[in-house]
Design goal:
- About 40% of the residues are buried.
- By secondary structure, the protein is an alpha/beta fold.
- The protein has 7 helices and 8 strands.
- Helix 1 runs antiparallel to helix 7 and helix 3 packs parallel to helix 4.
- Strand 2, helix 2 and strand 3 form a beta-alpha-beta unit.
- The protein has one domain: 3-Layer(aba) Sandwich (Rossmann fold).
- The N and C termini lie close together (about 10 Å).
- Helix content is about 45%, strand content about 15%.
- The protein is globular.
- The longest helix is centred in the N-terminal third of the chain and has 18 residues.
- The chain has a 6-stranded mixed sheet, with helices on both faces. It has a two-stranded parallel ribbon with strand order 1-7.
Length: about 210
């Protein structure tokens, strides 16, 4: 099973684009959003980075994505330095996908009054109120449970590659957490809701690159 991380990244990129163009505190006029990755790997280079940029540019083609690689999954101090460098360059929203080093990005954003986007799970509670403004989740527990049941019942096709995304409910954006409403302005949430309805309903579908 392959998760459509193009869609996942596009949704947080779209929110980042909305925020950088908004009047929310901390938003700058520079139209720049950031992405800090622990390392580069095929899914990051071929799905997450392009999807994130595509989502942002759906809001405004002039939005720039500042992509930086930490080189590991644990150096919070270095991650904080990268985040501060981005903020110095005009970035106001950062998607962090750096494992244990994510805390460094959060701390930098807290100190500078900027925003953080999270990948793979609901993590608003890590910095509630204003810092973590969006989380895109993979429903991995559901996928594992359902595949195990299929295997036990003899219904799991052998060697068949399946791509799942928003319309299947395995990839989603967490907008049901009250902390999302607390962190994001009503104007931005309303615009985000329109896009989420379209992608959850299958009206918008972003393809996974062929190399998969």
């Amino acid at each position: 099973m392959l998760y459509n991380q193009v869609e996942q990244a596009a949704m947080v990129g779209y929110l980042g684009g909305l925020i950088t163009k908004s009047k929310m505190p901390g938003a700058t006029p520079d139209l720049k959003i950031g992405l800090i990755a622990g390392q580069q790997y095929p899914a990051m280079d071929e799905m997450i980075v392009p999807g994130y940029e595509r989502g942002a540019k759906e809001v405004d083609p002039d939005i720039e994505v500042d992509f930086r690689v930490l080189g590991n999954w644990c150096d919070a101090n270095k991650a904080g330095d990268l985040a501060n460098s981005m903020i110095d360059a005009g970035v106001d929203v950062i998607l962090t996908a750096a494992g244990g080093a994510n805390q460094g990005v959060i701390q930098a954003a807290q100190a500078r009054g900027k925003y953080v986007l999270y990948f793979d799970d609901d993590h608003y509670e890590l910095a509630p109120g204003t810092i973590v403004v969006g989380c895109a989740a993979l429903r991995q527990e559901r996928a594992v449970f359902e595949r195990v049941i299929e295997a036990v019942e003899g219904r799991l096709p052998y060697g068949e590659a399946v791509i799942v995304g928003f319309s299947d409910g395995y990839v989603d954006f967490v907008d049901s957490n009250p902390l999302y409403e607390e962190a994001v302005s009503s104007e931005v949430r309303e615009q985000m809701a329109v896009m989420l309805d379209k992608i959850r309903g299958g009206e918008i579908s972003l393809e996974v690159p062929r190399f998969w």
